[in-house]
Amino acid sequence: MSRKPPPSDDLFDQVFKTVLLHSESPRKFRAFRAEIFAEIHPRTPIERVLTRQIVNAIWESERLQSLAAGIINNAKVAALQNLIEPTSQIGGLDTDLLAKSFYSDDGVRPLVLERLAQLGLSEADVETEAYRLRAEELQSLNRLVVSAQSNWIKKLRALQAYRAQASLLTRSEDEIRAREIEGTESTGGA
Length: 190
Fold this sequence. Notes:
Mean pLDDT is 87; it is low at 1-7. By secondary structure, the protein is mainly alpha-helical. The protein has helices at residues 11-15, 26-40, 45-84, 93-102, 109-118, 123-133, 135-186. The termini are far apart.
């Protein structure tokens, strides 16, 4: 029997669920959200909405940044194949198999490293080639990361502006009340 998560006190949370990727931990997201809420300490419903938007925007920014490693890792087999293909005597057929087995078969590693050494290359050059192969995708991802970071910074500034405006309104209301009290006292309470 699966347990339902406890109901949230936040109405916004109940209405608008944050959608996580299957690989993301709801527990880690809730802990992250709790930390941000504890730091910002929203005092009004509008501040809670803005804080939630900040949380989601920061989470998205971090999510995007972690994708770069996946892009590189997924390109490593193709990169390795590109690098060792010149050592093939049969048009790359043997190096295709070697590249595919390099990361899963410890017996293949020495042979592939030897071929790389024949070319004056090392395993670090495989990552460099993977970057080269995926440069366009990484550049696009970088634009998304910068946009996501800009997004949460704008939301944080919006919260700060809202708080400043609310503070000015509260001060103005307090000043009006003080003047009214002064006026009442100077006229003898009439």
